[in-house]
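To: structure desk
From: M.T.
Subject: fold request, one chain
Message: Could you run this one when you get a chance? Sequence is below, nothing fancy, just the single chain.
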Amino acid sequence: MLRRRAKISIPEFYVGSILAITVADPNSPSKNNRFVGICIDRIGCGLRASCILRNIVDGHGVEIKYELYNPLLKRIEVLRLEKRLDSTLYYLRDALPQYSTFSFDMEPEPRIEGATIPINPLQVELKPRPWYARWERANLMGVKDVNSHITEKMLKQAAIHEKPWEKFDLMKQYRSTIPEDEQVEIFSEVESQLKEQEVTWQNARRQSKFSRKPIKA
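Reply: Done. Structure tokens follow.
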């Protein structure tokens, strides 16, 4: 994992951030593919960490899952760093296309280093049913008036299947994360190497800024 981190910088990003990820074409070593999209989910941790990007291309929803430590991955750019109201954004599959449409020519938005990560309060509008999932049962904060698309019977069923206690389920959180004791042990081993790599990346960025040739008028 550390060897891979020495070759590629994995920046800070969250579900809801807009990313551009460049990967090498396995069938053509000299060719790269770059995809821009909104991160709708982050999965796993460590070497198994991955993310899913979504965009609308030629009127069709396109989703690509990227393994963050895949040797074919060349670059991760954060074009817009922000969070959303929900932990996953799979409901964008059933939302209007404009909520998942991003230009492939989008430029990175400037941000102040160390500033608080903004939370986008946007609430998307869903298309009429049928849907990819029963979103009325998910207690979503980022969906506008989901109950207007369902019947009274479905609304009652949603109340029956509601699980408000899950956010207090410590065992569920434990199973989905690494125990804290193990985290301390792991980070104590890799912290010094990560700091060295961060200094190396910062020096490389400074050198690239000074080495850029001035644009002639």
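Reply (cont.): The first strand starts at residue 18 and ends at 25. Let me know if you need anything else for the meeting.
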